Amino acid sequence: MSLLVFDGVVKTFPVGRPGLLGGPGRVRRAVDEVSFSVERGRTYALVGESGCGKTTVARLAAALLRPTRGRVVFAGGDVGRLRGRALAAYRRRVQMVFQDPAGALDPRQRVASAVEEPLLIHGLGGAARRRAEVGRLLEVVGLGQREGARFPHQLSGGQKQRVLIARALALQPELVILDEPVSALDVSVRAQILTLLTRLQRENDLTYLLISHDIGVVGYSADRVGVMHRGRLVEEGPADVVLSRPAHPYTVGLLRAVPVPDPARRPPPPAGPPPEPPEPRTDSSRACLYAHLCPRAARSCVRRRPALRTVAGRADHRASCHLAED
Amino acid sequence: MARAAGLPMAVAGALLLTLVALAAVAGPWLAPAHPDELSLAESLRPPGPGHPFGTDYFGRDVFSRVLYGARVSLAISLSAQLIALVVGVALGAAAGYFGGWVDGAVMRLVDVVMAFPDLLLAIGIAASLGPGVPSVLLALGLVGWPGLCRLVRGEVLALKERDFIDAARAIGAGDLWILRRHVLPNVAAPILIATTLGVGSRILQEASLSFLGLGVQPPAASWGSMVHHGLRWLSRAPWLVIFPGLAIAVAVLGSNLLGDGLRDILDPRLRD
User: Fold this and answer.
1) Three-state DSSP class for residue A43
2) What sign does the dihedral A191-A161-A169-A112 (CA atoms) show?
3) SS3 helix, strand, coil % of chain A, rounded to 5?
4) How confident is the model at residue A136 (pLDDT cuts 50, 70, 90)?
């Protein structure tokens, strides 16, 4: 059953100042007609390069932003319409772990107080119960009393991310949005945090929406993968299928960009001439948004923008590429 | 380096202010005479053993009056600064945090108030409300808040973009909670510095208003009103002006030193 559904979601941001008479200014589509659904208890991963709109998707899901068009549906309810008390209730069920753990913690708040804060806001338990719960949460993420009494700047990056994870778990949410949970961390710490997240998912029956630019992280933990490019979902399907048999040239490029330590196992460099530099005009035209970078671009790619369609043979694998259609 | 220079300054300022505060609190025990006690036989005595700061035309002991004046001056300037603090922080935080029309309205108001020279505005307000302590309080409070408001707005604007504000919203915190728990604690240091520095300005402005006869009314004395009344005797009895003037200087210097010292210690970034 789908816990979270994005249904044709568009989010635009104003660019520059509106006209002198308050007329509509220029807008940029950060998220463009994005649709996907996250199944309960599973991990859905969104990948793409920076600026592709995946963090905007995370913020839309966390109700920190409202969609310009389309609907974000959680457990059957329209998230964009939530106000006041209903919004507070939503935030008990949906939590977010931020990309930069140093920035997401108040520098003047001690760790224990940061973890206690969600319980305090939602009026859960008395002082003694809350203190016990904070102790339990810190222990769950591998921290102790000592860390609880510290300020964020006294902790390592990995410890800070553990604090944020403990804080996100405090309200026993159903869905946790992980916005680049390990990209700010040292490589040596990443695996620990990913293992912790996997364990917590199993133990607490959590659903994850994982945002990452690192397709390696995605391969580690995702059930389904969505690939974003310039605000649009260009490919979507089961993780093993998308990662092993990508249908969209952009996904192919992303996978090829993953560094492989062993030179003998590296794939051969891409054949043919390097892609042409981006042509800004394709943006307003009807061309495929990837056409100017695509090594396989055909004439049809410039004439008509491809829609997200099922890839031959699988109903749960979709890609927006003319060349992937049969 | 900044810290090293800041500490002695802050300590010196704190000592001077402590001296003034001590005079205000312990005045009744330190004063050799009641400040309003008349003794025409001892009119206009120069400073000497019986009267360390001399006496005025009515034979009142100037030292005692300066001690009691500390009470009036400090009470009025601190209360006025408190008014400025509450109004400035509340409006500045609201403007910076909510933005939009709130920000526009508050900042235009700030622009209007700041368009007038501080002292002229205070004189205008106090004069139109009539002399007396309440009108001085109101006048000084109104003059003091725009600076704090601008400062707080700027700090809050910068703070609002930080992730931990969004993170607080994501755990369900409301606007007031975020302002109280996350915004204000993080702007406390600059507010403290500006408030301390502001006290000095308030002391000076209170003295100026009292000097013009708009402040406390006789027989009560503040330093400013003592200078005002002593001016008539300046050539015959300069101590009537010198000692209250010195008291003003000490108090203002103390608050400026403390404020500048705190600035260097807490927030090197704020130095000019």
Assistant:
1) strand
2) positive
3) 40, 20, 40
4) very high
Q: What is the pLDDT of residues B127-140, one digit of tens each?
A: 898 888 888 899 99
Q: In which order are the strands placed within the sheet that holds A94-97?
A: A94-97, A175-179, A207-212, A43-47, A224-229, A232-238, A318-319, A309-310
For B107, phi and psi rounded to 5 degrees? -70, -30
Rounded Cα distance between B254 and B200, Å, is 8
Q: Give the whole-number percent of chain A exceeding pLDDT 70.
A: 90
Tokens of B250: 């000490």
Interface test with A, best of B101, B164, B169, B181 (most A CBs within 10 A): B164
Residue of A117, A164, A175, A176 to mutate, testing the B interface (most B Cβ within 10 Å of its Cβ): A117
CA distance A296 to A312: 19
**Nearest residue, CB atoms, A100 vs list B163, B174, B177:** B163
pLDDT score recorded for residue A280: 44
Note whether A164 contacts B164, CB cutoff 8 Å: no
Query: Around B147, how many Cα atoms within 13 Å sit in the side-chain half-sphere?
Result: 21
Instruction: For chain A, say whether B266 makes contact (Cβ under 8 Å).
Output: no
B161 touches chain A (CB under 8 A): no
Q: What is the pTM of this model?
A: 0.80
CA atoms of A118 and A132, how far apart (whole Å): 14
Closest partner residue to A118 among B162, B166, B172, by Cβ?
Answer: B172
pLDDT band at B272 (very low <50, low <70, confident <90, very high): very low
- Residues of chain B in contact with residue A82, where contact means CB-CB under 8 angstroms, are none
The minimum CA-CA distance between A162 and chain B, rounded to whole Å, is: 15
Please return the burial class of B112, using the count of CB atoms within 10 Å of its CB with bins 0-12, 13-18 and 19+: exposed
Q: Do A121 and B186 count as a contact with CB atoms less than 8 A apart?
A: no
A97 interface with B at CB cutoff 8 Å: no
Sheet arrangement for strand A2-15? A26-39, A2-15, A69-74, A77-78
Q: Write out chain A residues lying below 8 Å of B162, CB-based.
A: 103
Reported as a single tens digit per residue, the pLDDT across A225-268 is: 999 988 889 999 998 888 888 888 888 888 887 777 777 776 66
- Whether A93 has its CB under 8 Å from any CB of chain B: the answer is no
Determine contact, residues A294/A305, Cβ cutoff 8 Å: no
Place of tokens 């006294």: A154
Reported as type and span, the H/E element at residue A146 is helix A145-148
Q: Closest to B172 (Cβ–Cβ): which among A88, A104, A106?
A: A88
What pLDDT digit, counting tens, does each position of B16-34 carry?
Answer: 999 888 888 887 787 777 7
Instruction: Return the half-sphere exposure (C-beta side, CA atoms, 13 A cut-off) of residue B60.
Output: 21
A164 contacts in chain B (CB < 8 Å): 167
